[in-house]
Amino acid sequence: MKTNSSVHEDDSAVHNDFSTTIGALILSLVFLLGVPGNFFIVWSILARIKRRSVTTLLILNLALADGFIMILTIFFIIYLAKQRWIFGEPMCKALFYLCNTNMYASIFLITLMSVHRMVAVLFPRKLSYLVTRKMVRRIIVGMWMLVMVIAIPSLVFRKVIEVSDDETNHTKWICAPNHSLPRHVRFQYAFETVSGFILPYAVIITCYVLILKRLRQTKFRRHVRSEKLILAIVVMFGLFWLPYHVINMVQVAAEWYPEDSDTRKILDDIHSDSRAVTSALAFISSCANPVLYTFAGKSYIKKNGFAFMAKLFEGTSSEQTENKKSRNMNKIGVRSNDSNNTLPTCEQTVTHQVS
């Protein structure tokens, strides 16, 4: 039933046996690791940490978003395995909408972590004034409202479509993009890549350039290690989402060429053959963080057992208390003779104690 430009891309996720098989295997692994891993993080923070710092609140929201979307991967595993959609149109729209919401939420939360790190390093004495837990909670609520709005295109441009099955000579139903005009394709995927990858990463890179520049201006360069955990989260997210956004741009580029051109056919083949695998790789980023935290907190495992994750995050829980102490010391006239010497003390109040 290929009647418009949307249908050329409609079976991009399920028409290639090799691509769908690899995608299903990746998603199965992601499900097995991601669901228990992310909810273990949630349990560690809610049950083991009484005073939750800004960074801990952001990590909690990231784990909730990733854990929830990991549960939904079971539907996509079945979709790829059967190569047909059996859950109806409401679920088709809802599941892809939730996936896009999670993508935006993840990168925005990581961006907020990076901005918080930058403020902590550049303005350590003012951190408790500039960044409070109450303000961060409001920002997080606002962020969730924002991502639910900007993910709407994935809800609008998605529907269940009937297509022919070349192997059986019958028709089948698939959950596919539904773009009636080429400009709809260009808008959705360009908007998704710019707002969900390029702009946030520009902010993240700017933050870390300023952080490293500040740290290198001091003689306490060993504190660069304190940024490694969040930096690892940033890099991991970028590595697994980059292929997905590259394919987005390939699909956008294809829409600029006539349908009968050789370049258009090549670009269409690239994005249709790669979509299932790159989408599955993107899901890996949601189960990668628990693995990173486990490696970061491995020195606590033997001593603290299942509480090791909470121990890893404990360093961030004292930041408000320590900042208040620092502020009170300033009020009674305690001053450092060397301005550079203030950085380690303030750094210790706002960074992870990662061994």
TrEMBL record:
The chain crosses the membrane at residues 20-46, 58-81, 101-123, 135-157, 189-211, 231-254, 274-296. It is found in: Cell membrane. It comes from the Eukaryota. Residues 37-293 form the G-protein coupled receptors family 1 profile domain. Its main location: membrane. One of its GO terms (molecular function) is leukotriene receptor activity. One of its GO terms (biological process) is inflammatory response. Residues 319-355 are annotated as: Disordered. PROSITE patterns: G_PROTEIN_RECEP_F1_2. Coiled coil: none annotated. Keywords: Cell membrane, G-protein coupled receptor, Glycoprotein, Membrane, Phosphoprotein, Receptor, Transducer, Transmembrane, Transmembrane helix. It is a multi-pass membrane protein. InterPro entries: Formyl_rcpt-rel (IPR000826), GPCR_Rhodpsn (IPR000276), GPCR_Rhodpsn_7TM (IPR017452), Leukotriene_B4_rcpt (IPR003981). Residues 336-355 have a biased composition (Polar residues). One of its GO terms (cellular component) is plasma membrane. Belongs to the chemokine-like receptor (CMKLR) family. This is G-protein coupled receptors family 1 profile domain-containing protein. It comes from Oryzias javanicus.
